[in-house]
Amino acid sequence: MSNWCKEKLSNFVKYVQWEQVAVEEQSFYSRSWYQRFVRIIDYTNRDEPPRYIPYTGTKSLVGRDDIVMIRYWSQTAWKAVRWIPWVIANNMFRINIDKNREWKKIDKDFLFHYLSSKSIFDYLHKGWGSSTMPAISFNLMNDLWVCFPEDIEEQHKIAKILSTIDDKIELNNKINSELEAMAKELYEYWFVQFDFPDEKGKPYKSSGWKMVWNEELKRDIPEGWTCWIIGDLFSSQAGYAFKSSGWTDEGHPVLTIKAISEDGSVDMKEAAHIEQYDGSLGKYTVHNWNMIFAMSWNTIGKVGIISSAIKNVLINQRVLIIKTETSSIAYAYFILRDEKIQNLIAQLGANSAQPNISEESLRSIKISIPSSGLLEKYNKMCHSYFEKIINNRIENQELSELRDFLLPMLMNGQVTVK
Fold first, then answer.
1. Closest C-alpha to 292, from 228, 365, 238, 231
2. What's the pTM value of the predicted model, to 2 decimals?
């Protein structure tokens, strides 16, 4: 093993931060003279439509392998991110390594993983100060000590191990996005545009089949469809009102609304904890293939699916457990994430001082329902997609745990590579 060095980050990096771009200057449409404008939400929500701005030069351009730090409080604040190229917003900054440094050089991938470690996150978290908008300062970054092998080849080897794990996680995420997009597209064709296959396999509405007015829904629906309330699709259970004073750093996990990710996964790293659990709160425990629904704050309406890797975990207040048959989860998932339903949830939640929807209000939302045969056909077609998505999420959780286990030991020389 080569000798290890310890230097301040300011000795070998510079920072590049872009200026603020007003919302009215951003566009959902790309043109030949436009650039992709990368915001924090692009790193937290893979389904977020990209934004574009007129060409501004190359100062704030980032490549797929550049190191970007999130400055301000968000789901990814104080963390190093990468993979999305183009122009970054002003609440992030790019880290440039001094390429002219001729001694004790540092590998970009090695530095990315070093800055991704929990110890660095904790350092930045504690040092952000007392401002109303928690943020990383450049002085805080400059004072950060970096430990690294003097041998650049050893840095390459360490980074390759961690990057291989990250690449597999990224591949699984890409596969999941494509699978969900396929299931969503079919949902929209059949249940939003009403172009489900008729008896001859042709699209119903586009083929001129009869649409009838439904007085309860106040719109046309296909002949033979009926009006239900969304609560007819599932049973539900609101979470337990744990006291925040009882949270601990370790112990029995409790899912809060922060744990529900934009892509429908559930992030156990965002779970809170209670010190002891005697088993008396069984009805507040989530199980494999349950869904959880965020009932308040800026997360209102988010839906996550519980995998078999999440066991014996409780839910907090403002989170709703949604239980449906495993074979029927595809339709229930997409009806909850349907754009019209999400808009209605937001409207119903806006009636209180902070966004909040009750279990009763959610269950009372009216929807149109086709014959059981069409629902069964859709769920059957999409079930294998969801099984693959869940299995990929389980694998990603295991890979993340492996990476987080190896990361500190590789970064301090406890584990060596050959």
1. 238
2. 0.84
Q: DSSP 3-state helix, strand, coil percentages of the chain (rounded to 5)? A: 40, 25, 35
CA nearest to 129, candidates 137, 119, 117:
137
Amino acid sitting at position 409:
M
Q: Read off the amino acid at residue 75.
A: Q
What are 386's two structure tokens?
Answer: 């969801």
Q: How many Å separate Cα 221 from the centre of its chain?
A: 34
Provide the angle, in degrees to the nearest 10, between the axes of the packed helices 108-115 and 152-187.
70
C-alpha angle with apex 353: 352 to 354, nearest 5 degrees?
A: 90
3-state secondary structure of 44: helix
Q: How far apart are CA 100 and CA 25, in angstroms?
A: 37
Q: How many Å apart are CA 242 and CA 315, to the nearest integer?
A: 9
Distance CA 197, CA 203 (A): 5
Kindly calculate the radius of gyration of the chain based on its CA atoms and give it in whole angstroms.
Answer: 24
Dihedral, CA of residue 71, residue 72, residue 74 and residue 76, to nearest 10: 10
pLDDT in tens, 364-392: 999 999 988 999 999 999 999 999 999 99
| Residues 6+ positions from 7 with CB-CB distance below 8 Å | 104, 145, 146
| Two tokens, residue 252 | 């029995």
Nearest to 136 by CA among 259, 266, 284, 17: 17
Closest by CA to 112, choosing from 86, 58, 150, 148, is 148
Check if the beta carbon of residue 345 is closer than 8 Å to that of residue 300: yes
Question: Residue 410: in which H helix or E strand, if any?
Answer: helix 372-411
CA distance 199 to 188: 19
Handedness of CA 17, 19, 21, 26 (dihedral sign): negative
Using CA atoms, how far residue 194 sits from 182, 188, 208, 312, 342, in Å, is 17, 8, 11, 40, 19
Give 360-365's long-range contacts (Cβ < 8 A, gap of 24+): 362/230, 362/231, 362/236, 362/293, 362/295, 362/320, 363/229, 363/230, 363/231, 363/236, 364/229, 364/230, 364/231, 365/229, 365/230, 365/231, 365/341
| Sequence-ordered list of residues with C-beta below 8 angstroms from that of 88, at least 6 positions apart, any chain | 18, 38, 60, 62, 68, 94
Residues recorded for the chain: 418
91-128 pLDDT, tens per residue? 888 888 887 776 778 899 999 999 888 888 888 877 66
